[in-house]
Design brief:
This protein is about 25% helix and about 30% strand. It is α/β, with parallel strands linked by helices and about 210 residues long. The strands form two sheets. Strands 1, 2, 6, 7, 8, 9, 10 and 11 form an eight-stranded mixed β-sheet that branches. A three-stranded mixed β-sheet has the order 4-3-5, with no helix packed on it. Strand 8 and strand 9 (about 135-145) form a beta hairpin. Helix 2 (about 95-115) runs antiparallel to helix 4 (about 190-205). The longest helix has 18 residues, at about 95-115.
Length: about 210
């Protein structure tokens, strides 16, 4: 099953990305377009999903974009790798939990290739690492299902500034912090996108 691969070098506005994903979702359902994987970085923005609470915004002065994805409040910006997709589950197993496991496995496998041990958590969605004696989030996952087409994606913190997270309760989780790959292990993550795409495609054909 041929999947289009799209890689953006310039920063992409969040609204522009959402509009594209919604449009592609509709076109895919009508068999007018292919499934797609799109890797990019966003300009700095705070976004919230359908399950967020106002109490999770610690700095009330921040601009907040309300998204139609699942999940709570998070931050996107330079140094954070975004992995979007539009995937037709009608042509695969209609199993949302299994699809989320594909995403989790993809991230965990990829980080392992860089010598970083990570894990998923049934209670708190996302991918986590044990770092400096604490459990910290390294990747956030947010998806939406429409007519059994899965879209949105996940974000991995690579070299981004972590201070913006102090203005929110990331993903609504109070007792755990956020980190990035550079803080865990200083090395080149140049081929991260390539490895993520390879592992995702392999895991997707379950």
């Amino acid at each position: 099953m041929k999947i289009e691969i799209k890689k953006s070098i310039k920063y992409i506005r969040y609204q522009e990305a959402l509009d594209f994903l919604e449009r592609r979702c509709s076109e895919l359902y009508q068999n007018k377009a292919k499934e797609i994987i799109w890797t990019l970085e966003h300009k700095e923005i705070y976004t919230c999903g359908t399950n967020f609470k106002r109490s999770e915004i610690l700095d009330k002065s921040i601009d907040l974009y309300k998204s139609n994805r699942g999940g709570k409040v998070t931050w996107h910006g330079p140094g954070q790798k975004i992995f979007y997709f539009v995937i037709n589950l009608n042509k695969r197993k209609k199993d949302i939990r299994r699809f989320i496991k594909v995403l989790e496995k993809t991230i965990i496998q990829t980080l392992k290739e860089y010598g970083i041990k990570s894990f998923s958590d049934r209670k708190d969605i996302g991918i986590w690492v044990n770092h400096e004696g604490n459990t910290k989030k390294i990747a956030a996952i947010g998806i939406k299902i429409k007519r059994w087409i899965a879209f949105h994606g996940f974000a991995i913190n690579v070299s981004n500034n972590l201070s913006p997270y102090k203005k929110i309760i990331p993903c609504g989780i109070k007792d755990k912090k956020v980190t990035n790959l550079i803080s865990i292990k200083k090395q080149s993550y140049k081929n991260l996108e390539k490895k993520l795409i390879k592992n995702f495609l392999n895991n997707l054909e379950y």
